[in-house]
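Homework help board

Subject: predicted structure for assignment chain

Our instructor gave us this sequence and asked us to write out the predicted structure in token form, then describe one feature. I got the tokens but I'm not sure how to describe them. Can anyone check?
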Amino acid sequence: MNNLLKDNVNKFNIVEDCNYLFRKNHQLRGDISIKLLSDVIDRKRECPQKLLSIACSIGVIEEKIKNRLGIVVYGIDAAKDALKKASERGIITKDADISKRLPFKDDYFDFVFAGEVIEHILDTKAFLIEIHRVLKPGGYVVITTPNLARLDDRLKLLFGKTPRQTSPLHPYLYLHIHPFTFDSLKNALKAYGFTEIILRTNVFTADFWGKEITLYSKLLTRLFPTLGSTLIVRAKKR
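My token output:
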């Protein structure tokens, strides 16, 4: 396991450090992701459809996916203590190094969910190729990741200040290797075999002088998703 992955595992293996998943903005991120999955699920299929969650942590969103959509949810993570909590939530778990080949055969899953993980991956190309490989033809991936081009970070860069997503001194964002804009994420998905790419976001957040302000507006997030706090993207395997 490389040092970057070890640092991530050590940070998020402690269950208490995963409490951010219960915050309102992250709950909304999960709800939007589930809606994107629900819109494309085949409800006429008799056999259960399967979803893989990469870096499932304690399985908070994954449990919602399982219960709301009635599909079988697998989760992989290298954080063993967190993985135990996901297993208790009814997720089929596997301890695995997500920076390497995924431990599943080709064309195995109907859906893949990668929540707040792609920014931690050193080799984005290999990561997306692996997602493409384990997805069935016509399957869908939903990826969420912090938005490098959210509104306040654009303003900070304009005035020569450090965008939040690139701060080397931040208590956890320093672990983000590749921050994404929608344009860079969309281009990467297109390059590695995905199409029908759509974008959603959850909230607008501004962080100035250590004070964070969050605006919840369904209208604004629909109209200006590229300015939102989180990129929530669905794409189809070509």
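Reply (TA_rk): Your tokens look well-formed. For the description, you could write something like this. The radius of gyration is 17 Å. That's the kind of observation they're looking for.
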